[in-house]
Amino acid sequence: MPPFQTYLVGGAVRDRLLGLPVQDRDWVVVGASPEALAAAGYLPVGKDFPVFLHPETREEVALARTERKTAAGYHGFAFRAAPDVTLEQDLARRDLTINAMAEDDAGRVIDPYGGQRDIAAKLLRHVSPAFAEDPVRILRLARFAARFADFTVAPETVELMRAMVAAGEVDALVPERVWQELSRGLMEGKPSRMLEVLRQAGALQKLLPEVEALFGVPQPEAHHPEVDTGIHLLMVLDQCAASGAPLTVRYACLCHDLGKGTTRKEELPRHIAHETRSEKLARQVSARWKVPTDCRELAELVAREHTHVHQSTGFGPEARLRLLERCDAWRRPDRFAELLWACECDARGRLGLERRDYPQRERLLADLRATQDVDLAAVSAAAVARGAKGPEIGAAIKAARLGVLRSFTESLDS
To answer: With contact defined as beta carbons under 8 Å apart, do 14 and 115 qualify?
Structure first.
């Protein structure tokens, strides 16, 4: 037997108690030094603090450690890992009580901070005042709220987060970490809860002021029975989750209506030309948090075109062809399909309309399939044979696609 004790900790313990599948297992070793683990065959891999790979399972094992705040932001910590650091001390540095439990090799739960009590009460509660030392924990808590949608945040934890925001801790967050947590929260089962908790904490105004600006802004009740633009956004994001949408679609939906937050008061509740403003603001958000290209590009496309997609059932072949052209649908068919997915979530993210039909999606996909059958090489060759050059060849291709689209439309309408 080694002279140290290994414990399963964190999310694996929490999820087992919740009856959920255990995805990842984290381990902590108490009573060991780096030298002792290395001698026992553990492979060191940690850069910032001692982390090792188990010699048999290859799972990560960390030495029990304490941490001390040394500077602003989530990088500003000094760690101490030593054989005399206890399991309780290691668990005390964790964010939430439900994540601050351990399990020994006999399956006994060690719960010094009331994690099981808070699971029973469905509460997200900070372990200690040290929560305030790491602003990433605000984002992590909001993400957990999106995962465990029936949990509420303890009032004292909300107050602590608000104090952190007021103290400027959120201002020290780096883009990569913000995007990591926001993207993971968007992919949870109820992403609206992430935004709600960030609003509670006062952090949404700091991180996504363009989204914060949507709350309290009215829009026409005939199209939006929920009226409030912010509430509409929450409903759209939950429609994304319900439909199993990928991150690109969910991020695009997050940004699709940002321009409505800048509509002049005298124009309310209408939002004339909000699409152009939304596209610009989506670009602004993506730049701030260094959003990946695929998410950024789809967000701008959805912001600009979602209203046209909604209205496309009233378009003739010429207007539908122009829509396909603007969306670069022939070169980027997968992105075009994601645009339509986002638009369907937008249409259904409305009070009482969650199950409405959305024929625009299948109709435009059918338009794309029909026009994809145009033999571009043959059309181009025929145009060249007639003496066409450059733009004239492009015009010939457009005419061929339009002809196909007209015939396709007539066959549907007949």
So the answer is: yes
> Which residue has tokens 């980027």?
332
Boundaries of every domain in the chain: 1-121, 122-207, 225-372, 373-413
Distance CA(119)–CA(111), nearest Å, equals 12
Please enumerate, by residue number, every residue annotated as part of a binding site. 11, 14, 24, 26, 94, 140, 143
Sign of CA dihedral 260, 189, 91, 8: negative
| Binding site listing for ATP | 11, 14, 94, 140, 143
Helix (H), strand (E) at residue 80:
strand 77-81
SS3 49: coil
From residue 291, give the alpha-carbon distance in Å to each of 137, 178, 356, 412. Answer: 20, 10, 32, 41
Distance CA 338, CA 208 (A): 23
Q: What is the mean pLDDT of residues 97-110?
A: 95
pLDDT tens-digit readout, 261-270: 999 999 999 9
DSSP string for 333-361: HHHHHHHHHHHHHHHHSSTT-TT---HHH
Q: Are strands 51-53 and 43-44 parallel, antiparallel or unpaired?
A: antiparallel
CATH architecture of 1-121: 2-Layer Sandwich (3.30)
Residue among 95, 291, 280 at smallest CA distance from 186: 291
Bind-site residues for CTP: 11, 14, 94, 140, 143
Answer whether 1-121 and 122-207 agree in fold.
no
- pLDDT score recorded for residue 364: 98
pLDDT confidence of residue 72:
56
The CATH T-level fold of domain 122-207 is: Hydrophobic Seed Protein (1.10.110)
Contact 93, 72 (CB under 8 A): no
Can you say how many angstroms the Cα of residue 336 is from the centroid of all Cα atoms in its chain?
Answer: 20
